[in-house]
Structures are given as structure tokens and as C-alpha cells.
């Protein structure tokens, strides 16, 4: 019995005293261009901001995305009007633009001798109306939950992208009106540590069905939405932007033109 104990102690000392650092050599592919192009229109006929963010996909163990600052970005309207977007800050290009709801717009990004392009049209949205607060939510029945209400137009297919943004955390959702066509409905916001006095900004975007499918898939893959749905995903989700020079080197991201309704709320 004593010999068995000594053997176990010896084995334990050997096992715990030998620590080898193992470098894992991941076979990573070449970085892809990520294009997050969002034109948010608050009021039809008024100037809005055309915003395009460009970056490269990051390696698995990297915490820092690489901003792309040397691309050429422009928007071409259906009637041929060209608007060049200027580099505003790291990887972000923007320019004031008045969107005509009756026209389509083509985004062109030229980067490293390759042309990326997508064509979209304005999608309207109904206004956010009011917010309801409940103080008995969550598993503990003591957490704050917020609902931002709007009324869906009847007899037409509608698709929405919903955001709830605050310092306590962000929440995103994508939904269609299959089960609430023509009725009042709400976007739901719940994050931990939300407290009285916190300011929450709600945004409701009108989107088309392809973007709804794209965003719904992204959100299904994202367990942590705190940094937004466009962070690195476990699987590749293709957007609507095409590499016209080299289709195999397709980009990630999406181009959309959405009317957006905003509503601010201070937690009671």
C-alpha cells in the first residue's frame, strides 16, 4: 500500500512540474474585405449621412480589426449622379446625401484593383410611438424590461431591423410582420444591469426581405451582441455586395438604404 502511495505522489510531481507551451498553427485564409454600408434616412427629402465602414477580417486570436483607409468609395444614383464618399476616420467613409425614394443607388468600392458593388433602393418605416417599462422582468422577476411600440401597416409584407442602445448594453433584433400584420407590436429590450436614470435609444429600420434574412442569420449565430451583429461570426454569411473583378474573393457585409425612426427613453 505504501509503494502505491509513493508511486502516485511521484507521478503527480512529474506531471505538474512539466509544462510545455504549445503553439497552435492555424491555417488561416487571406483576409477578406468587410463592407458595412448603411444609409439611414430620417425624413424623406432631407439630407442624410451616407456611411460606409471598411475593414479586413481579423485572425482568430486577434482582438483588433484592420481599418481600410486607402479605398475609393462612391455612390451612383439611378440617373447617373455620382457622389464620392470621403475618409472621415479610421475605415469610415461618409458624405451628406439626399435619397430619392423612387430611385435605386449603386455602391462602388474600389480596393486593391478590385471593384465591389451592390445596388439597393430606399425602404420606408413607420414611426416608433411610445415605450412601456416593466420592473418585474428577468428570471428574478426584479429586472427592468422595455418595450418600444409601433403600428405595422396592414396588407403588405414588412421587414424590420430593431436596435436598443445604451451604456448598459445593446440589443438587436430582426423580424417580419407575418404574425402581426396591421397590428400594434413592440421591439423588446432587456439587458442586465439596466438601472433608473439610464438613457436608451431605440431605432427601428425599414429593411427588405434579403436583409432581414441576412441579419436574422447573423443574430442567430451571435450569442454576444454587445459590439453589434457585424463582429466575427462562426460561419460565413454572404451579403448583397459582389466582387465584380474576382467573384471568388467575395466581401462580407451588406449595403442597405433604410428609413429609420428613433425614440429616446430614460429609465424610470
Give the topology, please:
Layout: H1 2-17, E1 33-41, E2 47-56, E3 66-67, E4 72-77, E5 82-89, E6 92-98, E7 104-111, E8 114-121, E9 130-137, E10 143-151, E11 159-165, E12 171-176, E13 184-189, E14 199-207, H2 209-221, E15 242-243, E16 252-266
Parallel strand pairs: 1-16
Antiparallel strand pairs: 1-2, 2-3, 2-6, 4-5, 4-7, 5-6, 7-8, 8-15, 9-10, 10-13, 11-12, 11-14, 14-16
State which percent range the strand residues make up: 35-45%
Series of secondary-structure elements, N-terminal to C-terminal: HEEEEEEEEEEEEEEHEE
Helix content, binned percent:
10-25%
**Using DSSP, what is the number of strands?**
16
| Spatial extent as radius of gyration | 24 Å
Q: Kindly, what is the distance between the CA atoms of the first and last residues, rounded to a whole number of angstroms?
A: 69 Å
Question: The biggest beta sheet, please?
Answer: 13 strands, mixed
Report the total helices: 2
Class of secondary structure makeup: mainly beta
Give the overall form: globular
Amino acid at each position: 500500500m505504501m509503494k502505491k502511495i509513493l508511486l502516485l505522489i511521484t507521478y503527480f510531481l512529474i506531471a505538474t512540474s512539466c509544462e510545455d507551451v504549445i503553439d497552435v498553427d492555424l491555417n488561416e485564409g487571406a483576409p477578406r474585405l468587410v463592407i458595412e454600408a448603411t444609409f439611414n434616412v430620417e425624413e424623406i427629402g432631407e439630407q442624410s449621412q451616407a456611411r460606409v465602414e471598411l475593414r479586413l477580417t481579423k485572425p482568430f486570436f486577434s482582438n483588433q480589426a484592420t481599418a481600410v483607409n486607402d479605398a475609393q468609395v462612391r455612390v451612383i444614383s439611378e440617373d447617373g449622379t455620382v457622389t464620392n464618399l470621403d475618409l472621415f476616420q479610421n475605415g469610415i467613409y461618409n458624405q451628406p446625401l439626399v435619397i430619392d425614394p423612387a430611385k435605386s443607388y449603386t455602391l462602388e468600392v474600389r480596393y486593391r484593383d478590385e471593384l465591389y458593388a451592390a445596388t439597393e433602393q430606399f425602404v420606408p418605416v413607420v414611426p416608433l410611438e411610445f415605450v412601456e417599462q416593466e420592473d418585474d422582468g428577468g428570471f428574478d422577476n426584479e429586472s427592468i424590461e422595455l418595450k418600444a411600440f409601433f403600428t405595422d401597416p396592414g396588407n403588405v409584407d414588412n421587414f424590420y431591423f430593431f436596435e436598443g442602445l445604451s451604456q448598459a448594453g445593446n440589443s438587436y433584433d430582426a423580424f417580419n410582420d407575418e404574425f402581426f400584420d396591421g397590428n400594434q407590436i413592440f421591439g423588446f429590450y432587456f439587458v442586465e444591469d439596466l438601472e433608473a436614470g439610464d438613457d436608451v435609444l431605440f431605432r427601428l429600420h425599414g429593411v427588405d426581405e434579403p436583409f432581414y434574412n441576412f441579419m436574422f442569420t447573423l443574430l442567430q449565430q451571435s450569442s454576444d451582441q454587445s459590439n453589434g451583429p457585424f463582429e466575427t461570426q462562426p460561419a460565413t454569411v454572404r451579403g448583397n455586395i459582389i466582387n465584380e473583378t474576382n467573384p471568388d474573393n467575395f466581401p462580407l457585409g451588406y449595403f442597405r438604404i433604410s428609413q429609420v425612426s428613433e425614440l429616446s427613453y430614460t429609465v424610470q
